[in-house]
From TrEMBL:
Regions that span the bilayer: 25-45, 57-81, 88-105, 111-130, 137-161, 167-189
Database matches in InterPro entries: ABC_thiamin-permease_prd
Protein name, entry field: ECF transporter S component
Key words of the record: Membrane, Transmembrane, Transmembrane helix
Signal peptide range in chain numbering: none
Species of provenance: Microbacterium marinilacus
């Protein structure tokens, strides 16, 4: 006798956590849009990088403060979609888009994007995909910063700097990941949720709940 459950029965018996973590079509679409938009920002950030790097040249390694401009996609995607794999997906899409447009770093952009995406994903994973508040954003951004710091100080032109300069770069990149990728992404999601743009996502529903609570008070 065939005792296997039908897809509808399997869905009905799935745990709340499994249902919450299952990707919907709208999740894929929005994560892709976020990734593409972030990829354009990555490309523009790359164009601005030489000038910004020159401004920070008074302290060798301080250019690590610019790293967050290439890290926010994963954190932003994770905070909006709130599903396992969202941070990795959006960061990789952003890297591919910036590479397709014509980033000056060529194919290695994909490798950086992949590693940064894994690190941003890990930030949410170690919190069991249960903290989508500021803490989750900061942890994800910090780990993405660590990832790019390791890559840049090992395999890019930064590796040729002195130990002191590489140390400055490493710390600066982590700080940039925390502030730009973590804090700024969290602020952006809250702002989007307040406009109603995220009403189909948990972030939007939470924003509405906070608003109703304020009205009731």
């Amino acid at each position: 006798m065939n005792t296997s459950a039908s897809p509808s029965e399997a869905s009905a018996t799935a745990t709340p956590t499994a249902r919450r973590h299952r990707w919907r079509v709208v999740d894929i679409v929005v994560a892709s849009v976020v990734g593409v938009a972030a990829g354009v920002v990555f490309w523009l950030w790359g164009l601005a990088w030489p000038g910004l790097d020159t401004v920070l040249a008074f302290t060798p390694g301080l250019s690590g403060l610019l790293a967050g401009g290439w890290l926010f996609a994963g954190v932003l995607g994770g905070l909006i979609i709130r599903k396992p794999g969202a941070a990795l997906f959006t960061e990789v899409v952003a890297a591919v888009v910036s590479m397709a447009i014509g980033t000056q770093w060529g194919p290695e952009t994909f490798i950086w994007g992949l590693v940064q995406g894994v690190a941003a994903e890990l930030g949410f994973a170690i919190l069991l995909y249960a903290n989508w508040r500021l803490l989750g954003a900061l942890v994800s951004g910090a780990l993405a910063g660590v990832a790019v710091a390791v890559l840049d100080t090992s395999f890019s032109s930064v590796a040729a700097l002195s130990v002191e300069a590489r140390t400055v770069y490493f710390v600066a990149a982590v700080v940039s990941g925390i502030v730009i990728a973590g804090l700024v992404s969290w602020v952006v999601v809250r702002a989007l949720a307040a406009t109603g743009a995220l009403d189909r996502f948990a972030a939007g529903r939470e924003a509405r709940a906070r608003g109703l609570g304020s009205d009731a008070a």
